[in-house]
Amino acid sequence: QDAQRKKVVPKLRALFEELDQDGSGMLDWDEVTSANELLKNQLSAVSKLVNLEELFICLDYDHSGAVDIDEFCDGVLNTRADKPLELFRIMRQNSEVLHTLRLLYQSVTGEEQVPHSPRPLSTEKKPADQDEGGNGKGGSS
Fold first, then answer.
1. Which residues lie across from 28 on neighbouring strands?
2. How far apart are the first and last CA of the chain?
3. Model confidence at 39, in pLDDT bands (50, 70, 90)?
4. How far apart are CA 85 and CA 78, in angstroms?
5. Contact call for residues 45 and 79 (beta carbons, < 8 A)
6. From residue 139, how far is each of 60, 125, 127, 132 by CA, in Å?
7. 89 touches 58 (CB < 8 A)
8. Can you tell me the distance from the alpha carbon of 36 to that of 17, in angstroms, rounded to the nearest whole number?
9. pLDDT of 120 strictly over 50
10. Residue 58, Cβ neighbours under 10 Å: how many?
11. Which of 84, 116, 119, 141 has the most other CB atoms within 10 Å of its CB?
12. 3-state SS class at 15
């Protein structure tokens, strides 16, 4: 699969550059819709999707109205997998949220390294009548 990826990525980059009519390094929906039919057909073929609007919506997970070359290549490669596009979009959104949380953590604490998990998560269920310290609620001891 990695060999196939390496083979397809240069083609995707070339396709992106042809679609990016203004040379901004960002591809917007207008550039996709105004592309010639040959480019649209190439994009449909490589993404295995006929509906280019659906493809663009999934690539533009942050609703910015444009995608850069990395978002484009990663997104199109993921459409070729046997996974729903929504899954790819959710994964991208989660990645962005994680990145933002790391920046926030660094800003608040001043620490360069964000711990993998600030505190261990407990999988044990607490009885409903106990508080955080394990003491019974509502009664005095």
1. 66
2. 64
3. very high
4. 8
5. no
6. 55, 21, 15, 15
7. yes
8. 14
9. no
10. 22
11. 84
12. helix
pLDDT tens-digit series, residues 1-38: 678 778 889 999 999 999 999 999 999 999 999 999 99
Do residues 101 and 95 touch, judged by C-beta distance below 8 A? Answer: no
What sections of 20-51 are H helices per DSSP? 29-33, 37-47
Residue 40 pLDDT more than 50? yes
CA–CA distances in Å: residue 25 to residues 16, 71, 97, 126, 134: 9, 11, 24, 53, 57
DSSP 130: B
Q: Position of tokens 């996974």?
A: 83
The CB density around residue 76, as the number of other CB atoms within 10 Å, is: 24
CA 104/CA 98 separation, integer angstroms = 10
Whether 34 contacts 40, CB under 8 Å = no
